[in-house]
Amino acid sequence: MTTTLAFDVYGTLIDTQGVNIALQKLVGDKAMDFSCTWRDKQLEYSFRRGLMQNYETFAVCTRQALDYTCVYYKTPLTADQKTDLLSIYRVLPAFEDVKAGLTQLKAAGFHLYAFSNGAADALEILLSAAGIRDFFLGIVSVDDLKSFKPNPGVYSHFLRKSKATGNSAWLISSNPFDVIGAISAGMNSAWIRRSPDAIFDPWGIDPTITVYSFTELNKKITEQSPW
Predict the structure, then answer these.
(1) Given the residues 8, 15, 143, 178, the one annotated as active site
(2) Domain boundaries in the chain?
(3) What would the CATH number be for the domain defined by 4-14+92-224?
(4) Least C-beta-crowded within 10 Å: which of 69, 92, 125, 204?
(5) What does the alpha-carbon distance between residue 59 and residue 118 come to, in Å, rounded to a whole number?
(6) Residue 8: active-site member
(7) pTM to 2 decimals?
(8) 16-89 — its CATH code?
(9) Of 102, 100, 92, the residue nearest 7 (C-alpha)
């Protein structure tokens, strides 16, 4: 049986801190804090919209999170400056270890998919710009269901689209909420712990495996597979 791997995109494949260079020119030494708040609000808004069943695309959540962050840091940006930042968000870079790890996994025969809160058209642009689109058999977006991770329905949607079963499918993510969501929905999951300071939520639902680099995935997942 072939093992199917679902890769979260933002923060896992793609470095969302890649916007920092542009932010430094606009907000100076507040750039890192500004970027982190923007990212946190982006996720919060997607969670809230999912619970409220008041769906807007992830791009809308990103734009509204930017508006909030500008107010929070008392840093008014012009409409053109915001547009430029949002444009950069569509072409962010992949993490340095991603291509090497994906190359190993594809060569090993795993079925690779991108699986994201982002809309499919935006993901096509993003992954192509990062030079990693060709690694994936397809892109599965939660936009099809008008909801967001970690709604259990979106993980079931992935399994249907990829024609995989829960025990042969893995979610690969650096986001603990995503890992917990996938395991709760019956999938295996690997947590990419990119920083030793990263904390996994103490819910009593642990990752199937934890790795510190994409290049560890092939060996660790193969060790866990019963076939």
Answers:
(1) 8
(2) 4-14+92-224, 16-89
(3) 3.40.50.1000
(4) 204
(5) 7
(6) yes
(7) 0.93
(8) 1.10.150.240
(9) 102
